[in-house]
Specification:
CATH topology of the domain at 122-224: Pdz3 Domain
CATH architecture of the domain at 122-224: Roll
CATH class of the domain at 122-224: Mainly Beta
Number of strands: 9
Structural class: alpha+beta
Length: 225
């Protein structure tokens, strides 16, 4: 009887040891689970977009920004200077400023030669004296003419003789000058010129004579008063 009981306890002893080990392991795991911190869960966040870039423009009449100016320490009882404005506004209106910029961009070369001043070819002529001369006969007007032929066609009349003190000499004409037109009307004969002179003396306010001297054509304008 004692032998069977001892065999029975020998079989139950390992089972008790296993149960004890399992209990110890369970207790240790529970103890460690309460002491150790919980694992933190990591969450994925989308990266934020970069901040917008700040662009700075230079100061213009319409975009003037204040900038602090370095100044000395203000004395006691005095106020420090206020901030000055960078870039003074233009005094020109918008359209004038655009024109000024365009002129500056397409400016004339300063080394270019200057244009000569136009000569004065406008004179004043007394109407009474001019009318008195226009009414004279052709022989007494102090000049003689001949038709000027160019490529077989008459074009103006040439002064062949001219007295020094004649009225037409006082108008600025010389010998060998070719009178082309009087008040815009073509002239090819002395009688035709005399008629235009008389008409200008009585009906027109101006007397305009176009003539050729050498290879150049000139125009003289007289105001009849």
């Amino acid at each position: 009887m004692s032998t069977s009981q001892s065999n029975k306890w020998m079989l139950l002893a390992p089972l008790g040891v296993i149960v004890a080990l399992i209990a110890i392991a369970w207790g240790v795991s529970k103890f460690l689970g309460g002491v150790l911190p919980e694992e933190k869960q990591t969450t994925y966040t989308q990266p934020s977009s970069p901040a917008p870039r700040l662009v700075r423009f230079p100061a213009t009449p319409n975009n003037t920004t204040p900038r602090p100016v370095a100044r000395k320490t203000a004395k006691k009882g005095t106020k420090p200077k206020e901030r000055e404005w960078v870039g003074k506004p233009s005094k020109l209106p918008p359209h004038a400023e655009l024109m000024a910029r365009a002129n500056k961009k397409y400016r004339v070369n300063p080394n270019a030669p200057k244009l000569p001043k136009p000569g004065s070819k406008h004179y004043v002529l007394k109407r009474a004296n001019f009318k008195r001369w226009a009414d004279l006969p052709l022989k007494e007007q102090g000049a003689r003419y001949a038709p000027n032929v160019n490529f077989g066609r008459p074009k103006g009349m040439r002064i062949t003789e001219l007295e020094e003190n004649s009225f037409i000499r006082r108008l600025g004409l010389y010998k060998d000058d070719v009178i082309m037109s009087i008040n815009g009307r073509g002239v090819i004969a002395p009688g035709q010129a005399k008629e235009y002179y008389k008409r200008a003396a009585t009906r027109s306010r101006n007397l305009t004579i176009s003539f050729r001297r050498g290879r150049k054509v000139h125009t003289i304008d007289f105001s009849l008063r």
